[in-house]
TrEMBL record:
EC number of this enzyme: 2.1.1.199
Lineage: Bacteria, Pseudomonadati, Bacteroidota, Flavobacteriia, Flavobacteriales
Sections of the chain in a coiled coil: none
Species annotation: Flavobacterium celericrescens
Organism domain of life: Bacteria
Protein name: Ribosomal RNA small subunit methyltransferase H
Name of the gene encoding the protein in the UniProt record: rsmH
Listed HAMAP family: 16SrRNA_methyltr_H
Chief location: cytoplasm
Recorded catalytic activity of this chain's protein: cytidine(1402) in 16S rRNA + S-adenosyl-L-methionine = N(4)-methylcytidine(1402) in 16S rRNA + S-adenosyl-L-homocysteine + H(+)
Function: Specifically methylates the N4 position of cytidine in position 1402 (C1402) of 16S rRNA.
UniProt xrefs under InterPro entries: RsmH, SAM-dep_MeTrfase_MraW_recog, SAM-dependent_MTases_sf
Family: Belongs to the methyltransferase superfamily. RsmH family.
């Protein structure tokens, strides 16, 4: 099964500051690139747990007694680590978003390049698909999804057009969705706008923002003091959540300050924002929007 090169491989794993006998978690296993790099730095007493809800990823499992692959969404990280007898770990790696493999398999419906059924589920057993969002959400809900997760200024008008079109016949595939929204897709910008539309629907289908918040809150509990968090995000919505949480342990607002105006911070930032080199982007186009943040639990 073809999986592409992992993004920011060395930088992300370097950020974990691997101890040979440590316990680490890769919450986005995918093709296993990051996990294999972590394994190469572990000694015989080290352990790596990996999560991936995508059934396709199971075919890439690493045959090593130090390695455990858990076929679950990483929003359940604490529960499943406890099941395996692990309460705290030395480092957690997350490479967010959709894997190159998921984009490249036409029938999964993630890519604007293919005509495919409206699916976009990272977990093939998930209840809500892109079809469900497009055909069953009401106009206000569709507008919310497109505006909040696609940052589309004319989300309300797009939602209205979708709802009017589906009264005649259901919108089953990506080609039909493109035709319905054709007036919002001028030739010079169509790929960019389509990508925003797809991103919005995908985030809703997979509850990506809620999952990320739950994961970050649990990571603070699971990491040992001095443990590292290494997170790659691909769009501003994700990066904003990671940045805010690392800075003050909150997603919105400001923490309560003491009499002197100080507040406790959960992490210290290890590196400034890390982005791929031009050379990596030339080799791996998926890397172009990647942003890596590394933090250490205080």
């Amino acid at each position: 099964m073809e999986y592409h090169n992992p993004v920011l491989l060395k930088e992300t794993v370097d950020g974990l500051n691997i101890r040979p006998d440590g316990v680490y978690v890769d919450v986005t296993f995918g093709g296993g690139g990051h996990s294999r790099e972590i394994m190469s730095r572990l000694g015989e007493n080290g352990k790596l747990f990996a999560f991936d809800q995508d059934l396709d990823a199971l075919k890439n499992a690493i045959n090593d007694e130090r390695f455990t692959l858990i076929n679950e969404n990483f929003r359940f990280i604490k529960r499943f680590l406890r099941f395996h007898g692990i309460k705290q770990v030395d480092g957690i790696l997350a490479d967010l978003g959709v894997s190159s493999h998921q984009f490249d398999v036409a029938e999964r419906g993630f890519s604007t390049r293919f005509d495919a059924e409206l699916d976009m589920r990272m977990n093939q057993k998930g209840d809500i698909s892109a079809y469900h969002v497009v055909n069953e959400y009401d106009e206000q809900e569709i507008s919310r999804v497109l505006f909040s997760y696609g940052e589309l200024k004319n989300a309300r008008a797009m939602a209205n057009v979708i709802v009017m079109a589906r009264k005649d016949k259901e919108i089953k595939n990506s080609e039909q969705l493109k035709q319905v929204l054709a007036k919002f897709l001028p030739a010079h910008k169509s790929n960019k706008i389509l990508a925003q539309i797809y991103q919005a629907i995908r985030i809703e289908v997979n509850q990506e923002m809620e999952v990320l918040k739950e994961f970050l809150e649990q990571s603070l509990e699971i990491l040992k003091p001095g443990g590292r968090l290494s997170v790659i995000s691909y769009h501003s919505l994700e990066d904003r959540l990671v940045k805010r949480f690392v800075k003050n342990g909150m997603f919105e607002g400001e923490p309560e300050r003491d009499f002197f105006g100080n507040f406790e911070v959960p992490f210290k930032t290890i590196e400034k924002l890390i982005v791929p080199t031009e050379e990596e982007i030339a080799i791996n186009n998926r890397a172009r929007s990647a942003k890596l943040r590394v933090a250490e639990k205080i």
